[in-house]
Amino acid sequence: MPLPAIEPQRLYRQIAEQLRVRMGQAEFAIGTRLPAERDLAKQLGVSRPTVREALIALEVEGWVEVRSGSGVYVRERAASPRVAAEPLPPEWGPLEMIRARRVVEGETAALAAIQAKRRDITAMREAIDSMTQEADGGIAPLTGDRAFHTAIVEACGNGVLVETVQTFWDSRHGPVFERLGGHFETVPSWRAAIQEHEAVLAAIRSRDPAAARAAMHAHMDKSHARFSASWRRTKK
User: Fold this and answer.
1) 152: which residues sit within 8 A by CB, 6+ positions away?
2) Regarding the domain delimited by 12-79, which CATH topology (the fold level of the hierarchy) does it fall under?
3) Which of 112, 116, 163, 228 has the fewest CB atoms within 10 Å, measured from its CB?
4) pTM, 2 dp
5) Distance CA 102, CA 99 (A)
6) What mean pLDDT is predicted for residues 114-131?
7) 220-224, long-range: CB within 8 Å, 24+ apart, which pairs?
8) Domain covering 94-227, topology
């Protein structure tokens, strides 16, 4: 039975529910590999990133197993302790959230290039240095990463923007985002992010708002691409 298309504006949770129902009805048999993301996206009439978020939610709930370098497989119910429980509470889709950050933080970077004081520049520099030390130690440098983006928005002098960016960042602690990061965040990916931060800082230090905006947009685009890599090409 073909999957019915859904409206593009619906969230990944609705897609996860459709797939969950079909797995429960054995349309997707236990142990089989699900269709590729691009095929599911075409059948459902949504974007591949939205399908990616739905599959991650199903993985967290125990319905599927993501095998890096291979694909996404339907799990045995008895081997999945979470499947009898209620679905996870909704959270922002990680890839959708990165796109929202691109809009907001592109502008905060541009504004910081105009307004940043010496102490703000110092805070950005220290945050990048902290990220480098953590990455060198094989630790995901989330503390330094958050500090860098916070230092940029604090330079704007707008409390609403500060709370907005911090809310974006705190959403990373949701189970869907953490599971996605577990698949795609590596020491090389963090080193790439550090270099992207260096470009943002250089533009802010140069008092070039257009360059700062462009550098932040590039950082978010590359972050989105890292989280969107093919399961079949990604190996741990």
Assistant:
1) 105, 108, 109, 112, 116, 120, 124, 165, 200, 204
2) Arc Repressor Mutant, subunit A (1.10.10)
3) 163
4) 0.79
5) 5
6) 98
7) 220/98, 220/99, 220/101, 220/102, 220/105, 220/106, 221/102, 222/192, 222/193, 222/196, 223/98, 223/193, 224/49, 224/95, 224/98, 224/99, 224/102
8) Four Helix Bundle (Hemerythrin (Met), subunit A) (1.20.120)
